[in-house]
Amino acid sequence: MKLRLAVVALVCVLCAPAAAQDMPMSALAPADEYFGHYKLSVLGIANTIRDVGHRLEDGRDASSMIDGPLAFVTDAIRDWERAYPRDPWIAKDLLALEVVYLRAQAPEAMPLARRTEFWLVRDYPDAAATRIGRRRLALALGEDPEDDADAPGERFATDRQPPS
Questions:
Q1: Would you kindly state where each structural domain of the chain is located, as residue ranges?
Q2: What is the pTM of this model?
Q3: What is the DSSP string of 65-118?
Q4: What is the pLDDT of residues 9-55, one digit of tens each?
Q5: What is the crossing angle of helices 89-103 and 109-123, to 10°?
Q6: Which of 15, 91, 103, 119 gives 127 a disulfide partner, CB atoms 3.0 to 4.6 angstroms apart?
């Protein structure tokens, strides 16, 4: 089991973007550390987001996914961010979370997508995931994603609270 975790951790480090490879290892959360009330690892967070996306594609009830696994993921990411605020994988998982919310067909999904985008813009304004998330949200809202693509975070610059 320890060997398997070590191999997974090594793969994560080797597959990390160039920016992550330039960071000290202490900035990256280890694969065997657990976050949030439900004790999800960074791999568990990514797997949960991916699994919920597949379940939504299969026609499962979005509300039960939002109130269950995605709520657990949000709690775990907040805890992860407190412990490892410079971990570049957080922005990528926030983008994945936002995309799942945008695909969910539930009344509470769009406000949660907007809140997740606010979080992404506020805490990771220069991340590539932030630019992608802004474009996806704009498209979902029927806006032109190119209108403000050159000004990451500008739309939320004066906001202090997540959009409702």
A1: 2-156
A2: 0.72
A3: HHHTHHHHHHHHHHHHHHH-TT-THHHHHHHHHHHHHHH--STTHHHHHHHHHH
A4: 544 544 554 444 455 556 788 888 999 899 999 999 999 999 999 99
A5: 160
A6: 91
